[in-house]
Amino acid sequence: MWRRALIAVAMGGCALSAQAIDYRSVAVPAAILFDAPSQAGKKLYLIKAQTPVEVVVRLEGWIKVRDAEGSLAWIEARNLTEKRTLVVTAPKAEIRQADKPEAAVVAELEKWVAVDFVEPASPGWAKVRHRDGATGYIRSTQVWGL
Predict the structure, then answer these.
(1) How far apart are CA 103 and CA 97, in angstroms?
(2) What pTM value is reported for the model?
(3) Position 2 pLDDT exceeds 50
(4) Spatial distance between the Cα atoms of 129 and 141, rounded to a whole number of angstroms
(5) Which residues contact 45 (CB under 8 A, 6 or more apart)?
(6) Contacts of 110 (CB under 8 A, 6+ apart)
(7) Does domain 85-144 have CATH number 3.40.720.10?
(8) What percent of the chain is predicted at pLDDT more than 70?
(9) Which residues lie across from 48 on neighbouring strands?
C-alpha cells in the first residue's frame, strides 16, 4: 500500500514538472513591484512596458513574478498582459532571416531590448518581431522569457 502512495507522489511530481512555464508582459508604461500582494506593501522598483515576467503565484488581483535577473516581487494583475515578449540577456543578439546561424542578420540588439515573441521555431530558436518592424529568428540562448 505504501508503494502505491509513493508511486502516486512520484508521478504527481513528474506531472508538475511537465507543466509549461507561464510568462506575461508588462502592459502599462511602468508598473510598481511590491514585496507583498498589497499596495500597502513596500515598493521595490518600477518595471517598464513590454518587460517579460514569469508567473510564480496568483492571489486575488495580484501575481508574484520573477524577472530576467531572478528577482521575485508582486505586481497587480491588471498591469500584465498575455502578450508574450522576450528580453535580450546577451551583451548583443542578432535577429536573423532564418533559424540558422549562417542566415543573414536582419537586426542587432543590445542587452535588455524587448521583442515580441511571434512563435517557436526550430530547437534553440524563436521567431520575434522588434518594435521597429524587423522580424526574424533569434537564438533562445540570447533572450529570456521562453
Answers:
(1) 6
(2) 0.82
(3) no
(4) 17
(5) 32, 33, 73
(6) 88, 91, 92
(7) no
(8) 87
(9) 30
